[in-house]
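Quick illustration, no need to memorize.
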Amino acid sequence: MRLYGFHTLQDVANSRITGSLIEAVNTAIAEAVREHNRQMDALMALFVERTTEYKRRFAQVGAVRLQPIDEAGRARPVKPGGFYDVAWPLQMAGAAWGADFVTRAKMTVSDAERATSMMLEGDFRWMRDHVLAALFDNTPWTFTDPLFGDLTIQPLANGDSVTYQISGGGDAPSTDNHYLAQAEAISDTDDPFEEIYEELREHPENSGEIVALIPTNLKAAVQGLDAFRPARDPNLQPGSATDVLIGDLGVQLPGRLIGYHTARVWIAEWPSLPDNYLLALATGGMRALRMREDPEPELQGFNLVARRDDHPFYESQYVRRAGFGAWNRVGALAYRIGDASYAPPAAYDAPLP
């Protein structure tokens, strides 16, 4: 058995679901869904904060200097300033599995596990695609909320009129663009990771480590960089003349950590990313995105909402209600390789259905 919840039913995998197995399988399905939601929350935590709000003003960090005073003086209070408005959609998608009375009678525990696994995989793909669209698409779009009207869903910093503070820079904030591109292939002379590090580190909203998630088609070029240090293989003992990566990132990633760039960027391969597009983000500070959910707990997560028993057909209906948009607009960046100008991947042009 592959799914959590079904692991206790391994010895009856090929048994028909009758008698006491009906309750056991229903319990296994509920446990599998709960564990799926827990794992989705852990995975999304790298990109996303959860919220039940539909709109919010992001308060920025301002730059100030101490005021000169003498022994009888006191500083004048300074009011924090700097903000921009962001909002989030709330979309709905569902999955179902069912049977007619014949296939239901013949259904085994293994069949039920496969059907459950298919639904959970569908939820994972829907969530992943909507997160990637929120990160890759560089233009705002309008979501018409049935309660709150038209909401402008913002991307990451895209060179618009919003200004951002720079750590150690000038007192005045400036515009920024976190959708970058280079026409040349990745090489020692065209290495994007120093720029990636500086672009994310310059903002006081960001902290922790810098991580770059790369698609499989860029893996060989990145591993060929002189500045790349591979993650240590526990099955191999490196030679004495080889630099060895001994650090540990300590956060859950959606791909596999493959190494470290001496520009102080951790690198992970994520095969789900489209060719020639990478994502980078800071592991600390406010997340780049927020995921909006309903305030009612029973509407949060991926859950069973109804069963249908209408002979000869039987169904179980599952629903996800969520929506994604930018929060900390300088908390991540997208980078396109092989083109001098940025454009989002065709499959991630928000809004997605």
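The chain has a mean pLDDT of 91.
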